[in-house]
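Hello again, I could really use a second opinion on something today. Take your time with it, there's no hurry, and the full record follows here:

___
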Amino acid sequence: MPFIWVAGRGLKRETVYMELVGEGVAVWRPVEAERREDGLFRILSSPPDETETWMFATGSVVRCEEKTFSGGSKGLAACERIS
């Protein structure tokens, strides 16, 4: 996994999945997030353009849960905004 270095300590970046709003069906976008020491994630990515609305804004701290997506693949899905 890649690391970023801030103030002398490594922060782990991971891919989490963000649900898109207003799509009519469940659509999930892979986004980059920073795993915090408390197990929560801070969203680092931004929507690619103004036509895509994410469930949580860039910079939000979220709780993630493992989710099985259609097709059987698994990943961490952002499920609750903490701050």
Notes: Confidence is low (pLDDT under 50) at residues 1-8. Strands lie at 3-6, 9-19, 28-35, 41-43, 61-68, 74-81.
